[in-house]
Design a protein that fits this description.
This protein has helices spanning about 15-30, 35-45, 80-90, 110-115, 120-140, 200-220, 235-250, 265-275, 310-320, 340-355; strands spanning about 1-5, 55-60, 65-70, 100-105, 145, 150-155, 165-170, 175, 190, 255-260, 285-290, 290-300, 305-310, 330-335, 390-395. By secondary structure, the protein is an alpha+beta fold. It folds into 2 domains: about 1-75 and about 380-395, no CATH class; about 95-280 and about 325-355, Replication Protein E1, Chain: A (3-Layer(aba) Sandwich). Strand 2 (about 55-60) and strand 3 form a beta hairpin. The chain starts with a strand and ends in a 14-residue tail after the last strand.
Length: about 400
């Protein structure tokens, strides 16, 4: 007897690639990067015979279970669970017993178009401008006068798979006291935000806009941007400055959501957002006559659920534009959470928070407890026997089809 494994989504991104990927590459392969082409290949082969696998056979009842290997590509909807679990385990040790705030910084569509041609440079500037904005405004003694802990996560998509680059920020509701330049005081103390309020969004928006456009202009001056297609005129310095001018008058979207609460709520949020890809398999509805239908939320109509149908070619075009450059870090830490000096700073924060809450009905300053389930011993699902015989399956070079017996 062979097990079909846990229930799978009725349709997967991999199936769209297997059925229409060859035609898509024939037509658009010339402008795809090597990383984008590799992502399409990896997703098509994920958990199929093409990557090999193993067979588990019960020595007592002869029950068999076939498992094919994962591609482990970070853009694959099926390969994020283990990476997310390991990452969350590490992040739990960095959380403080304070409220956390959710801030989002979004690039306007004019800049986003240029980012498609220069993803590594433009997304890096997005991280620089957003993190610098948070630290500068928080350091202002009229605002908070403190250095907060900041975690930023890059998303490049909207619900309909259009290009919509933005970073989600998870920020501590307070920080260590510092001067206006962000340098810690000689004897820092913990400075908490006002309940339910972090920093003024209008100020964050204006500072973010100024910082990003200044960084962008410097990149142009150094000749580190490319301008393909209709962007060619922007290679000229005078034209580029003229193109930048109206962006200084435009309102850039920065908004703060209501605070998460304590560390447990933050972990739930991080579990959903940090390792998300452009579209999950569970949002796909059908693939018929060369068209893909998927569910999305229309934010213009109060997140009303809708369905969108695209040709397979357009669906794949939108999908690959969210494949990040090789080695690009989509999750970054700043301030109290910056890799350099993080452990001693967090230790100091916990000590100060603990001292401030002694005698009050507030949580202590210990690291939040995270329950990690013990590793389960594999056994036969039919008879419960632990006598399993494992046999490896070699990689298969035949055309890729959807396996009906994978786990």
């Amino acid at each position: 007897m062979t097990n079909a494994g846990p229930e799978r989504p009725a349709l997967e991104v991999a199936e769209v690639i297997r059925e229409h990927g060859a035609a898509f590459l024939t037509r658009h392969g010339g402008w795809l990067t090597g990383v984008q082409q590799k992502a399409l290949r990896d997703l098509a082969r994920c958990r199929t015979a093409a990557l090999g696998g193993h067979v588990e056979r019960c020595a007592d009842c002869a029950y068999e279970r076939i498992s094919y290997n994962s591609c482990r590509n970070r853009h694959c909807p099926k390969c994020q669970a283990q990476a997310r679990a390991r990452w969350l385990d590490r992040q739990a040790q960095n959380l403080l017993p304070v409220d956390y705030y959710h801030v989002v910084f979004t690039l306007p569509k004019e800049v986003a178009e240029l980012a498609l041609a220069n993803p590594a440079v433009m997304y890096d500037l997005l991280f620089q401008a957003a993190s610098s904005t948070l630290r500068e405004v928080a350091a202002n003694p009229k605002r908070l006068g403190a250095l907060p802990g900041v975690l930023l996560v890059l998303h490049t998509w909207g619900q309909n798979l259009h290009h919509h680059p933005h970073v989600h920020g998870v920020v501590t509701g307070g920080g260590l006291s510092c001067d206006a330049q962000g340098a810690l005081d000689e004897s820092p103390r913990w400075v908490a935000c006002r309940p339910g309020f972090f920093l003024p969004v209008r100020v964050l928006s204006r500072v973010f806009r100024g910082k990003y456009l200044d960084l962008l202009r410097r990149q142009h001056d150094r000749g580190e941007l490319v301008f393909p297609g209709r962007l060619v005129p922007l290679a000229d310095a005078t034209t580029f400055v003229r193109w930048l001018s109206p962006l200084y008058a435009k309102d850039w979207v920065v908004y703060a959501k209501r605070p998460f609460g304590g560390p447990k709520q933050v972990l739930k949020y991080l579990a959903r957002y940090t390792h998300r890809v452009a579209i999950s398999n569970r949002r796909l509805v059908k693939l018929e006559e060369g068209k893909v239908t998927f569910r999305y939320k229309d934010y213009a109509e109060k997140q009303r659920p809708k369905c969108l149908t695209l040709t397979a070619e357009e669906f794949l075009r939108r999908f690959v534009q969210h494949v990040l450059p090789k080695h690009f870090m989509k999750i970054r830490h700043y301030g109290l959470l910056a890799n350099r000096g993080r452990e001693p700073l967090l230790t100091l924060c916990r000590r100060l928070l603990f001292a401030a809450t002694v005698g009050n009905a507030l949580p202590d300053a210990r690291t939040p407890e995270v329950v990690i389930e013990p590793a389960r011993v594999r056994c036969c699902p039919e008879c419960g026997s632990h006598r399993l015989i494992v046999r490896e399956l070699p990689r298969h070079s035949q055309p890729i089809v959807r396996p009906s017996d994978t786990s």
